[in-house]
Amino acid sequence: xxxxxxxxxxxxxxxxxxxxxxxxxxxxxxxxxxxxxxxxxxxxxxxxxxxxxxxxxxxxxxxxxxxxxxxxxxxxxxxxxxxxxxxxxxxxxxxxxxxxxxxxxxxxxxxxxxxxxxxxxxxxxx
Length: 126
Fold this sequence. Notes:
Layout: E1 11-14, E2 20-28, H1 33-50, E3 64-75, E4 80-83, E5 88-91, E6 97-109, H2 111-120
Antiparallel strand pairs: 1-2, 2-6, 3-6, 4-5
């Protein structure tokens, strides 16, 4: 049974050269960040093992390529209060803390690569 991806949900499109493009973005809290990285590594390791002619530019004859980006968002409670007697706001902001990690992965590839990726990581159609 193929592995189900828990965090990465790919959208598929084709570029003007006929290559397939899979885009996924996932945002998680700090406790799940390592799991998201592990899942991303699972997909990239599969691509490396199954299609050793990549990653690299498709126009140079490689089977696949990828782009990876990640960010961390910070948030702080504003501690906002409204005094009904003075009819004014006051605040006591808290210190900033990490609340979310976001990872974006784009995989582009040949027709064979795209078919194999779909078979290896079928979409969850719930």
